[in-house]
From TrEMBL:
Keywords: Cytoplasmic vesicle, Endosome, Golgi apparatus, Lipid-binding, Membrane. It comes from Jaculus jaculus. It is a peripheral membrane protein. It is found in: Cytoplasmic vesicle, Clathrin-coated vesicle; Early endosome membrane; Golgi apparatus, trans-Golgi network membrane. Required for normal morphology of late endosomes and/or lysosomes in neurons. Binds phosphatidylinositol 3,5-bisphosphate (PtdIns(3,5)P2). The gene is Clvs1. Gene3D superfamilies: Alpha-tocopherol transfer, CRAL-TRIO lipid binding domain, N-terminal domain of phosphatidylinositol transfer protein sec14p. GO terms for molecular function: phosphatidylinositol-3,5-bisphosphate binding. Residues 118-279 form the CRAL-TRIO domain. Residues 317-354 are annotated as: Disordered. GO terms for biological process: lysosome organization. The keyword RNA-binding does not apply. This is Clavesin-1.
């Protein structure tokens, strides 16, 4: 027989209600389906949520070399979710998050959407973010690689824009649980452009996205990749975790394999989807608000007719309107492609989803 409470019945209920409110306020706003998904897939238990968070917080003392600039419950929770509530792994990710920022201070100076470098990258569509989520509730990010004007945007500024975008998106608890999808269209991406993707800057991106950010990536999908992107994959492969490699999918120009994993109703027409062509300025307008100038906008008729007008300033050289490149993808009969031996990893998924 268990211990008998001496509290009056109404006081016991009030105490239980207060405890329940304390344990579940961090799940406020989540749908019942998402809460259940967090329980089943991430081992999230509202009964011990605060204990889990505190265990991670208690580990901070073991890393006096790192400045942990934010340690509130909601912030630590996203790292636990990213590592399926394995406290040691969550703390390691938390430490790497702040260490990456300490080691790359220049990247995080003026880390705001109106920073000139970040703003240019956002206006040029790095990244694109679809408004609606896929059938698993994941947010879909797009990168049209050929639109990288290397005289206008450094790779570092594009990476900063992607990291800032993820920082904004990861505030949504639903996305902490459901995660993200990244689609990279390599149509018209030249060998000259690819030559700028050096091992050092690719390593910087992998460290920032795979090892140091609390996002769950369900897949990274390459479409229309040329042979030299396969070669680049070989270069970065040693830096990728096994789980990461398994989440990189190379589809070539056959979009049927992409549609097996992301339904066409969630994709723009560039990827064989039923949605209208993606407007490159959509996400930039969301982040920049009134700072998004119409002079910087993409005039949108058809995707082939998209042009970007650059505002001339001391930070941007004058140039003529630049046509945005259209995807060369086609929908062909086929199934999810698995390469022959020697290329087998290339059909697999770039970011870690633990």
């Amino acid at each position: 027989m268990g211990p008998v409470s001496l509290l009056p019945k109404h006081q016991k209920l009030n105490t239980q209600e207060r405890d329940l409110a304390k344990m579940t306020h961090l799940q406020a706003g989540l749908s019942a389906d998402t809460i259940e998904k967090a329980r089943l897939e991430l081992n999230e238990n509202p009964d011990v949520l605060h204990q889990d968070i505190q265990q991670v917080r208690d580990m901070i003392i073991t890393r006096p070399d790192i400045g942990f600039l934010r340690t509130d419950d909601a912030f630590i929770l996203r790292f636990l979710r990213a590592r399926k509530f394995h406290q040691a792994d969550a703390f390691r990710l938390l430490a790497q998050y702040f260490q990456y920022r300490q080691l790359n201070l220049d990247m995080f100076k003026n880390f705001k959407a109106d920073d000139p470098g970040i703003k240019r990258a956002l206006i040029d569509g790095f990244p694109g973010v679809l408004e609606n989520r896929d059938h698993y509730g994941r947010k879909i990010l797009l990168l049209f690689a050929a639109n990288w004007d290397q005289s206008r945007n450094s790779f570092t500024d594009i990476l900063r824009a992607i990291l800032l975008s993820l920082e904004v998106l990861i505030e949504d608890p639903e996305l902490q649980i459901n995660g993200f999808i990244l689609i990279i269209d390599w149509s018209n991406f030249s060998f000259k452009q690819a030559s700028k993707l050096t091992p050092s800057i690719l390593k910087l991106a992998i460290e920032g996205l795979q090892d140091s950010f609390p996002a769950r990536f369900g897949g990274v999908h390459f479409v229309n990749q040329p042979w030299y992107i396969h070669a680049l994959y070989t270069l970065i492969k040693p830096f990728l975790k096994d789980k990461t490699r398994k989440r990189i999918f190379l589809h070539g120009n056959n979009l049927n394999s992409l549609h097996q994993l992301i339904h066409p109703e969630f994709l723009p027409s560039e990827f064989g989807g039923t949605l209208p062509p993606y407007d490159m300025g959509t996400w930039a307008r969301t982040l920049l608000g009134p700072d998004y100038s119409d002079e910087n906008d993409y005039t949108h008729t058809s995707y082939n007719a998209m042009h970007v007008k650059h505002t001339c300033s001391n930070l941007e050289r004058e140039c003529s309107p630049k046509p945005m490149k259209r995807s060369q993808s086609v929908v062909e009969a086929g199934t999810l492609k698995h390469e022959e031996k020697g290329e087998s990893e290339n059909t697999q998924p770039l970011l870690a989803l633990d």
